[in-house]
Amino acid sequence: MRVLIADDHDLLRDTLVLFLEAQGDIETRTAADLEEACKLITNEDRFDLVLLDLNMPGMNGLAGLKHALALDGGQRVALLSGEATREIAEQALEAGAAGFVPKTLPAKSMINAVKFMAMGEQYAPIDFMTAVDETAKHPLAEKLSPRELQVLKGLTEGKSNKEIARDLDITEPTVKLHMKTLYRKVGAANRTQAALIAREAGLIAREAGLY
């Protein structure tokens, strides 16, 4: 079995290589960005599975996933992420991804997921896909759309409009439009105030990896 791991975090990439190659029947190749990954897909023998990090250079949200899927070779491509929302995971699966793999998966589960997807099945952890979003019960959250909540989460993490747009696979003008409406709904004058209101109200958790 041949697996391509594309991620710009050296430690995570090397750890995955160790996990998979320890199985004895899995050969791995690695890339640090989408361009390098696509070159390997195009120039080497077919990979049974390609794992793409959602936020590595060149991905541009789900556009990178779709590009890799469209390359010749019929490779199966899965999304790898430590902070994607359930909505992004669902969109990836709908776009034809072999699966969605959270970086928080235990080693054994990660290996099983890779083998499962390489055999032609579609994978997504049930607990992640069916988790109840506690923020939806918050009075302030009820005023916001799911997309506005995602934009607000990006604000609390200090992300720029460009970064939020990339993460959500939408345009910057769309991000600005969502910001304008959520400012009005939460009673904020700017992005800093909106982030403070969200945190003080306990609407968005401070910890990374909430989703």
Automatic annotation (TrEMBL):
Keywords: DNA-binding, Phosphoprotein. The keyword DNA-binding applies. The modification 4-aspartylphosphate is found at D53. InterPro entries: CheY-like_superfamily, EvgA-like, NreC/VraR/RcsB-like_REC, Sig_transdc_resp-reg_C-effctor, Sig_transdc_resp-reg_receiver, Tscrpt_reg_LuxR_C, WH-like_DNA-bd_sf. Residues 137-202 form the HTH luxR-type domain. GO terms for biological process: phosphorelay signal transduction system; regulation of DNA-templated transcription. GO terms for molecular function: DNA binding. SMART domains: HTH_LUXR, REC. It holds the Pfam family Response_reg. This is Chemotaxis protein CheY. The lineage of its organism: Bacteria, Pseudomonadati, Pseudomonadota, Alphaproteobacteria, Rhodobacterales.
